């Protein structure tokens, strides 16, 4: 894998000028579900290199649109392929810099004090029977938030979307959906496994079958015009073992497939 990463980044290093000794400031736009992990990554990276990461977290769609509107991001980490491809289609992603960075899972959560027991989700599961007549299931907005898009795909594949769609509490991002369940404002929520792992006031009721939705992968790329030495160095570090250890501590896995470049 290290060989593939070195090969994929080689052209970027050729384009970049020699790195100076002066500490650099690098702006990273990252999906909201990466808030805790990337905050730790930034601290470790600053200690290791002296470079400072300026982090901006929001839904992947919001960040992609900001980049398209001219926001000065050096690196972008999306929670799905759709929004990275959307930027690539507009030539806003640097050539050969796109890689699949992380993998995640989709889970059903409830408040920690809920009397709901763990269940197995399949095509026979009726989630509406787990909530009251006036209750809602918290989820990132399926129209644009990656976690919500994955949730919709899973529910459609399980034949439940039509019944559940009117019962959703649509949040601006996955962390907002998590907060609704943490505060007890929603009896159920659909979030990433990593979000549930960092929350103290929720519990996992079930994990959605892997085959019910596309693989949850987080692509990373340098934005067009920002393939400078500092950004290239950070990208290589994110794909390496030091960052991988930190991501693993927050429940993220590396993708099963080789890194994707574009």
UniProtKB/TrEMBL annotation:
Could you tell me the superkingdom of the organism this chain comes from? Bacteria
Q: Which residues form the signal peptide?
A: 1-23
Q: Which residues bind molybdate?
A: 33, 60, 147, 174, 192
| MF annotations from Gene Ontology | metal ion binding; molybdate ion binding; tungstate binding
Query: GO CC terms for this protein?
Result: outer membrane-bounded periplasmic space
Query: Which positions, given as ranges, span the membrane?
Result: none
For this protein, the record's Pfam families field holds:
SBP_bac_11
The Gene Ontology biological process annotation of the record reads: molybdate ion transport
Among InterPro entries, the record links this protein to:
ModA, ModA/WtpA
Alphabetically sorted, this entry's keywords are: Metal-binding, Molybdenum, Signal
UniProt subunit comment = The complex is composed of two ATP-binding proteins (ModC), two transmembrane proteins (ModB) and a solute-binding protein (ModA).
Recorded family membership: Belongs to the bacterial solute-binding protein ModA family.
State what protein this is by name: Molybdenum ABC transporter substrate-binding protein
